[in-house]
Amino acid sequence: MKTEIFKISAVTPDIFNQTAAAMKNGAIIVLPTETVYGISAAADNPAAVEKMCNIKQKPHNVPLQYLADGVESAKKFAVFSPAADALAQKFWPGGITLVLPPTEAGKTVARGFDTVGIRVPDNDFALRLLKIYNGVFATSSANIHGRPPANTEEEILAQFDGVVDYIFLGGTPHGTPSTVMQPEPFKIFRAGAVSETEILNILKNVTI
Asked: Which residues pair with 118 in a beta bridge?
């Protein structure tokens, strides 16, 4: 496979549009976020999501993360309680993934799971591509399952050049993955960019 490789600083409007259209047709991409590089597919294309999982060698019984371009877009796919809404308003765009019940639309992309983990990345390139796509991306960290996230351009190219359709390089991923947590009942599945203390400081002011 010939992989199209771009520096994000050189991506033109035509390339954004080309990539969004290609993703609708099943393209797999690697892109930077503010936490780590991610491998992404269109969430509403089941064949593309399966292909992405196969490339990453990710077991199908392990949930994926979903990226949205804003809180309102995320609410099309997940049911937000007052606690979830308060956390989203405080920390999005940013490094917290909220594990929430899916809406009817969310069930169509949830791959049989009874929750969806969704976040809004704090990365201008990712947000712009999401907005042009006008949907959500199924995403996981850009690494072969079980290995540490690939955080350098060299690591990304070594693992994914020739096996995905597009690679976008650049930005400054800081290497700390997002915190993955469920507001109700409260549970942190993975510690990450947003601390438990920061989360609890917001939740203590939420009226249920």
From this structure: 66, 98
Helix-strand-coil split of the chain, %, nearest 5: 35, 20, 45
Which residues are CB-contacts of 15 (< 8 A; sequence separation ≥ 6)? 6
208 pLDDT higher than 70: no
66: which 2 tokens? 């979903």
The Cα–Cα gap between 165 and 4 comes to 6
The 10s digit of each residue's pLDDT in 153-173 is 999 999 999 999 999 999 777
The per-residue pLDDT for range 166-199, each reduced to its tens digit, is 999 997 777 788 999 999 999 999 999 999 999 9
Angle at 102 between CA 31 and CA 132, to 5 degrees: 35
In order of start, what are the domains of the chain with their CATH numbers? Answer: 4-203 (3.90.870.10)
| Per-residue DSSP letter, 44 | T
Give how far Cα 183 sits from Cα of 55, 103, 151, Å. 31, 16, 29
pLDDT at 174: 79
One-letter amino acid for residue 113 of the chain: F
Exposure string of 11-40, with b = 16+ CB inside 10 Å and e = fewer, is: beeebbeebbebbeebbbbbbbbbbbbbbb
What pLDDT was estimated at residue 173?
78
**For residues 208 and 203, what is the distance between their CA atoms, to the nearest angstrom?**
10
Q: Given the structure tokens 């490789």, which residue do they identify?
A: 5
Q: How far apart are CA 192 and CA 180, in angstroms?
A: 7
